Amino acid sequence: METKLKVVSTSSDTTLPKNLRQFIGSQRGKTAPGDTVSVNTPMNETQRDLHTRDIYKWIEKHQGVDWNLFGYVTVVRFPNSKMEMINGQHRTELVKLVLPEQETVPAHIIDIKDQDYAAKLFAAMNGGSSRKLTTEELFWSEVIGKEPFALYVKEQLEKMNVACGKVNEGEERKQVKYPNYVKCLKMGEEATARAVELIDEAYPDHGVDDQVLSGLTRLLSLKEYESYGDVTTTLGKQFEAWFIKTLADGHQLSELRFNEYKNTSQWYNGVAYGLARKFKHYQTRKNRKSISLKLIKDIYENGITKNND
């Protein structure tokens, strides 16, 4: 049976943001059995910089310290009995912030002869001898764990009939990459759905190109260009016919990445500009109305400026 969160200390720590101080003293589960080391064990010189923001995110996500997730820190012990931590810096700092009365953490203590082996251990434990989870694999585990945001993304995938890794996978469903899809959703659900629909109709025998998806979503999410995605408008109908027929007949999907506009700080803005520019030229040849390129051009060119700063 799962141990619920319980408060073991009522002390406060002003180093934590105010919204996180409610979790001080909160912990779940039991510490792993076996050896322990002091929470103040010095870090080995191989250790990376401390990223406090990540610790804050974990505190908020798990509402304190979850010992079931903590496992063991890894500590090396030199011939002179000096001990240094080579793995577990962030987890230990989390414990120190949330459980200020906790003096030790579970540890795997490795006896070594020299610093060279400590460095090799650190490298191996941080990707040198293991494969890290992909974002899609992590997303799958979060869906199984019923994380609210993961379930929201899953719902959107189902609505748009696309898959992300194992989530909503099926023979007929095209795959999207998790980071890019989330980026698109943050631009706008409707714009993302319309972009998925247009790409699928124009290129039914191809997957969903992530750069094209985010670029098209970016264009349709901007208020000035939102009519391009609205088939109830004349411009929307013309844009749809152009994208599905004219553009698809003359260009491979990969060409719509507009690599020539990759020089911006956010490539999807370059893709959006490339699409808007190409559609405007098409409309001009047809003596039809189109929307000024100024806004999306400015957004794209501002990104070039940032890259050069």
Description:
The chain starts with 5 loop residues before the first strand and ends with a helix. It folds into 2 domains: 123 residues, Conserved hypothetical protein from pyrococcus furiosus pfu- 392566-001, ParB domain, CATH 3.90.1530.10; 133 residues, no CATH class. Helix 5 packs across helix 6 and helix 8 crosses helix 9. By secondary structure, the chain is an alpha/beta fold. Strands 3-7-5-6 form a 4-stranded mixed beta sheet, with helices on both faces. Strands 1-2-4 form a 3-stranded mixed beta sheet. 48% of the residues lie in helices and 10% in strands. The longest helix has 19 residues. The N terminus is likely disordered. It is built from 12 helices and 9 strands.
Q: How large is the count of helical segments? A: 12
Secondary structure: number of strands: 9
Order of helices and strands: EEEHEHEEHEHHHEEHHHHHH
**How many structural domains in the coordinates?**
2
Structural class: alpha/beta
Largest sheet: 4 strands, mixed
Strand numbers in spatial order across the main sheet: 3-7-5-6
Give the CA-CA distance, first to last residue. Answer: 55 Å
Portion of residues in helices? 40-55%
Rg, rounded, reads 26 Å
Low-confidence stretches: 1-14
User: Strand share of the residues?
Assistant: 5-15%
Mean pLDDT: 90
Query: Which geometry do the CA atoms define?
Result: elongated
